[in-house]
Amino acid sequence: ETGVTQSPTHLIKTRGQQVTLRCSSQSGHNTVSWYQQALGQGPQFIFQYYREEENGRGNFPPRFSGLQFPNYSSELNVNALELDDSALYLCASSRGLLYEQYFGPGTRLTVT
Amino acid sequence: GENVEQHPSTLSVQEGDSAVIKCTYSDSASNYFPWYKQELGKRPQLIIDIRSNVGEKKDQRIAVTLNKTAKHFSLHITETQPEDSAVYFCAAKGDGGTSYGKLTFGQGTILTVHP
C-alpha cells in the first residue's frame, strides 16, 4: 500500500451542493494530481499541484477547484454539484512532476 | 492533447497462459508510460513503467515494451495466475507543453484468469 490517504471514503451529496475532498501525500512527495474515475472508465485528469501551485488542468469546468498546502496535502472542491459528478475521485502523489505517481484509495462521491 | 487507446477491453485466459495488452498514444512528446492494476473497489496500483529511452523492461512475470516510432507500448504477463485478474490501465505522460506531468489513461482492460 502507498502512503497516500484520502478522506472521506464515501460521500453522498445533493445536486447543487458543494463538496471538499482531502488528500494527504506520501512523505517526501511535493506533487499531487487529482483524477475523476467514472464507473468502467480510466481516470481522467482534473488538475495537478506542484509545490502549492497549480501546474496543469484537464477538461473540467471552473467549479472544480483545488489547492495545496505547505505540507503538500491537497483539497479538491466541487461547487454546484451535478448528477454526472458522481464518481470515484482519486489523488496521486509523486516526488516531482516527472516521477511515478502513487494513488490514494479514493473518495466515492454520489450525487442524488 | 494526448489520446491513449487500449486494447482489448476484455481478455480471458487460462491459468498459466500469457496475456498481452496493447496501447497506442498520439503525442510524440510523451516519454513516460506506466501500467496500473486496479482490483475491484481498490486504488490503481503501479505495477511497471517504462521511459522513452528504453525499449523493454521486465519485472519477474511482467514486462513492458515500447515502440516510440509506432507510438505504441504493450504489457506482457507470463504464467498468469488467478490473482492477476483485475482491470489494467496503461497511461502516458509528457514532459512538455500541455501534457507536462499529466497522466492520460487508456480505457482499461478487464483481465480474467480462469483456474
Question: Which features characterize this protein?
Answer:
A: 112 residues; seven-stranded mixed β-sheet; four-stranded antiparallel β-sheet; B: 115 residues; mainly beta; five-stranded antiparallel β-sheet; globular
Short précis:
The complex is a heterodimer of chains A (112) and B (115). In chain A, 0% of the residues lie in helices and 51% in strands.
Descriptive account of the structure:
The complex is a heterodimer of chains A (about 110) and B (about 120). In chain A, about 0% of the residues lie in helices and about 50% in strands. With about 110 residues, chain A is an all-beta fold. In chain A, a hairpin with a 7-residue loop joins strand 9 and strand 10. Chain B has about 120 residues and is mainly β. In chain B, the strands form two sheets. In chain B, strands 2, 4, 5, 9, 10 and 11 form a six-stranded mixed beta sheet that branches. Chain B has a five-stranded antiparallel beta sheet with strand order 1-3-8-7-6, with no helix packed on it. In chain B, strand 6 and strand 7 (about 60-65) form a beta hairpin. Chain B is globular and about 45 Å long.
Blueprint (SSEs and pairs):
The complex is a heterodimer of chains A (112) and B (115).
Chain A lengths: L4 E3 L2 E4 L5 E6 L6 E7 L6 E7 L2 E5 L6 E5 L5 E5 L8 E8 L7 E2 L3 E5 L1
Parallel strand pairs in A: 2-11
Antiparallel strand pairs in A: 1-3, 3-8, 4-5, 4-9, 5-6, 7-8, 9-10, 9-11
Chain B lengths: L3 E4 L2 E5 L4 E7 L4 E9 L6 E7 L4 E4 L2 E6 L4 E6 L8 E9 L8 E3 L3 E6 L1
Parallel strand pairs in B: 2-11
Antiparallel strand pairs in B: 1-3, 3-8, 4-5, 4-9, 6-7, 7-8, 9-10, 9-11
Number of strands of chain B: 11
Structure annotation, total helices of chain A: 0
Give start-end ranges of low-pLDDT stretches of chain B: none
Number of helices of chain B: 0
Report the β-strand fraction of chain A as a percent range: over 45%
Structural class of chain B: mainly beta
